[in-house]
Design a protein that fits this description.
The protein is mainly α. It contains ten helices and three strands. The chain has a three-stranded mixed β-sheet. α3 packs antiparallel against α9. The longest helix has 38 residues, at 112-149. The relative contact order is 0.14.
Amino acid sequence: MKTKKMLLSIILSILILVASQGLALLIANIFIMIKMPEFICNILSGVMYITFALYFIKLLCRKYMKEDRIDYYIPRFKLKLEWVITALVLPVLVSACFLLLRGSFEKNAIDLNQKLVIVSAGVFFTGFGAGIVEEIIFRGIIMNVVEKRFDRKVAIIVPSLLFGILHIIGMDFNLLSCALVILAGTMVGIMFSLIALKTKSVWNSAIVHALWNIIIIGGILNIGTSFNENSLYSYVLDTKSFVWTGGEFGIESSIIGVAGYVLVCLVAILLDKKIYRKNL
């Protein structure tokens, strides 16, 4: 693949992510305006986000790439048990490690409707919506076009670094927090890349991504240095050390979070070393 086509493919895929998200939120807001319950709109927005992205990616693959989605690790939906287990164990284990640190639980005093709004947004939009679409874009399209232009090593590292950098765009973070976010984002991107490479399917990395989002940032239990009014419960850490708290971005960029990503990377490599040696 030529460099120009690779770059345009990356740009188009990111535009698809933005457009799919924007359309889903726009339609959901219209439903809210006509008095549809907000928690139902959250569910619909997550489903529409995924649907729009899959449709546009299908068009991109067929009309521009002249290939099928399966060539970009987007086959029919199917999961492998080991990655479903990983998807559950990773965020639960990371959360448990933080709960061992000194802190206090605080319950958010909100009514049932507000609880439904928080949980529906966390599960369907932030969880499955963002988790699936980001994997389709980064581990499906971007990783594969980079590999077609360069090699597998570059295809693992470059999209993962881009994934990390995109998480600081629009954020008013200090330099240290930015560095932590890029490091953590790159490591988690490498983790997702290795899962997708092993299984030749974004669905397995997507389930790990989705359940991480639901459990860690989905609004059921927030772990951080202060009470979060957008979560059902908060575990407020006593420590302010950026090593443990992850700085301004939160626990996803903490040493515990990064250790979790590294552990899964090692498991993925040990499960099938030959896959990652290709083209290295």
